[in-house]
Amino acid sequence: MAGTLLLVGATSDIGHAVAARYAQAGWRILLAARDPERAQRNADDLVARHRAEVGLLRLDILETDSFAAWLDGLPALPDTVVCAVGELGDQGRAEVDPTHAEGVMRTNFLGPSLLLGLIAERFAARGSGAIVGISSVAGDRGRGSNYVYGAGKAGFTAFLSGLRNRLAKSGVRVVTVKPGFVRTRMTRGLRLPPLLTGEPSEVGQAVYAAAQGGGDVVYVRKIWRLVMAVIAAIPEPVFKRLNL
């Protein structure tokens, strides 16, 4: 039975694909974004393509002190929440600019974790709900090419794992989705291997299926599970000599 989806990160390509998949299934969509004007374009698309019922909400994932009051102000508690917030940042800049590094880590870990933690308490009190956090394979092991972004996603992955463990008997599902490379505006300009690179629509389908009971930790392209298992198994003396 269709319900209400709260999508956090509504201006991202992945977020829009997730919302579209839920709209296809007849769900009501609440789009939360720092810039509602940008999110309006996605809302209009959902209405035009899927005749979806769509609401727009302003939420800045870095304004953590506002989360509790923001949740209290929702018209109703959603059935599912998907957090599609992410910022790749610039690794080179992050190495010399602590402010930039902090922004990347707060966007990928601190803000999403604190928000989902508050939502989890409300879901647990109700005894139902699904929480989906879109993390990244970059969090499976730190690599020199993107370890600031990877550190944020590693923290988010660990948070979701602990939340899932704590709420296992509460009636609340907690799912971690790891897309790997995806063709989006965030990755534009990067050379991406075709076999390992998905489309936003693949992520949308994976999120929808997982939230309905299709897994706890989902690699959107299954080959990533093997790839990251191999990378994680490389001994540290060897790993630190690799250019990854």
Automatic annotation (TrEMBL):
Gene3D superfamilies: NAD(P)-binding Rossmann-like Domain. It comes from the Bacteria. The keyword Ribonucleoprotein does not apply. The keyword Lipoprotein does not apply. Keywords: Oxidoreductase. Coiled coil: none annotated. Belongs to the short-chain dehydrogenases/reductases (SDR) family. This is SDR family oxidoreductase. It comes from Methylorubrum rhodesianum.
